[in-house]
Amino acid sequence: MNAMKKIGLICTALFPLVAHAEIVASQATIFPTEKAGQPSAIFMQLQNTGNETVNLLFAESQQPARLELHGMHNGKMHALNGIEIPARQSVSLKRGGLHIMVFDLTQPIQQGETFPIKLFFDDGEVVEVNATAK
Predict the structure, then answer these.
(1) What InterPro entries does this protein map onto (predicted)?
(2) Residues 92-105: what's their mean pLDDT?
(3) Which CATH architecture is the domain 22-133 placed in?
């Protein structure tokens, strides 16, 4: 089999993976903590490059911690069942707005450290993100 056919087969095999990658996460940060057990929060930009609205359902971490989706309403924080990201639009997870709360940390998060998380969406997409402590 010549090289061009091999490249074509590889591209065809990978196309479903590339075509499905619709959410782009960027600028992910997490608040450093001084001690274990102290809550933190994760912020980032989520861009939906697809033609359908998707919903962030939940987030998980490799590190021992409990992650919750949160929003603010009338100055009060509350848990959310999901975060909608409209087609061809971006949503900001930021201080005073939508964000991911991090509870029950077994170790503090140091300045400059990365905190890996996975974001799970209702279309089956899973996005891996490294939030930097700032």
Answers:
(1) LpqE-like, Lxx211020-like, PCuAC_sf
(2) 97
(3) Sandwich (2.60)
Asked if residue 83 lies in contact with residue 55, where contact means CB atoms within 8 angstroms, the answer is yes
* CA gap 60, 114 in Å, rounded: 14
CB neighbours (10 Å) of residue 109? 23
* For residue 12, pLDDT beyond 90: no
Q: Which pTM value belongs to this model?
A: 0.82
Question: Taking the domains of the chain in order of start, what are their residue ranges?
Answer: 22-133
